[in-house]
Amino acid sequence: MILIVLYLLLAIYLIAVFLLYRGFNPLIRQERTTAQPKVSVIVCAHNEEKNLPNCLRHLSRQNYPLEKTEFIIVNDRSEDRTAEIIEQFNQKDARFKSITIRERNPEFAPKKFAIDSGIKRANGEIILLTDADGRPVETWIASMVSYFTDDTHLVLGYAPYTIRPKNHFTKKLLALEYLSHAALAAASTGLGIPLTCVGTNMAYRKSLYFAVGGFGPYKRHISGDDDLFLTQVREAKRFRIKYAIGRESHVYNNPPRLWSKFLHQRLRYASKGFDYPLRVTVGLIIYYFYNLLLSGQTIAALVAWSWPPGLLVIWALKMSAEFIFMNKATRILQDRRGLVTFPILAAVHPFYVTVFGALGQFRYFRWAEDKSEPAVQKPKSK
Fold first, then answer.
1. Other C-beta atoms within 10 Å of 253: how many?
2. Which domain holds residue 312?
3. Which one, of 28, 27, 36, lies nearest residue 141 by Cα?
4. Which percentage of the chain shows pLDDT scores above 70?
5. Are residues 296 and 265 located together in one domain of the fold?
6. Terminal CA-to-CA distance of the chain, rounded, Å?
7. Both 204 and 114 in a single domain?
8. DSSP annotation of 361
9. Which secondary structure element, helix H or strand E, spans residue 232, and what is its range?
10. Of 152, 154, 95, the residue nearest 127 (C-alpha)
11. Chain centroid to CA 45: how far?
12. CATH, residue 95
């Protein structure tokens, strides 16, 4: 009986993978523009003395017109040398501007408040966002802006993990897992229903931010300055969203240095499952149930050391479809470095989804702060 249910769920999953595979095709035909509007790049930094200098150096090398570029660096309650580093760049390059936030806003999640403060200070028509550990290639601004034709309001981009040393197997595995998120973002955008994104590389019109009410009902969510904002824009159903492909729009960042950081990062991702619109949440529940059953049946087979042929067929179809999808994703996003790790990633993925999907619903994790905290900041008591 369980295998029959698994076959039905597998059929749904394969249809979804097939549709997403087709979603890559429209990305290649996206219209571009040569217009060069004024751009404001916003970087939020909370105790980022180790990462920030490299990020700001990469920003300073952007090949976009100087007079049309500003970099707004938001020092969010930092207690290290972050403020000093920002001031050094301010003095050397007039494009750099700074904002200092001294206290946490009880009505606004920290990073969202920092971004909101930056946007309200921005002079640019286009807002570009990256993180303090991001390292955009020198063509980043020009490439992202080129997707903003007159009818375009939001552009998503890829932020690949750096693999150093280049043959480090574990980092390749993490890079491919991270690329799978970008693959879903890109393919679903091609289908016209963008499902996710990363704040390390995204851009939108300043007018769009105010048109949807900023972060709106999500402003107290600790996470989600990227995908929950995307949800607001998508659900409004009147704004066009694109996905930037090609290395010229990449923003590199580092994989988590510690497994504990990886754990909390994935808990943060999983914690938002019930914050999305109902149809998205239902889809996630079906996907979770499919991986839960597959994991359970696989563990039972391993314990008994007896592999039902039907279970082997399910694994074979699943991994074949996923490889075809990921192989195309690595070509579209021009990042094939981690594909060699696919068999291991595909084998552990159902267990990964099952564990983190469950733990994430406790909605408690550590991010930029010094301690773990609830996924949604509590409003100030009256």
1. 22
2. 2-21+277-364
3. 36
4. 99
5. no
6. 54
7. yes
8. G
9. helix 227-236
10. 154
11. 18
12. 3.90.550.10
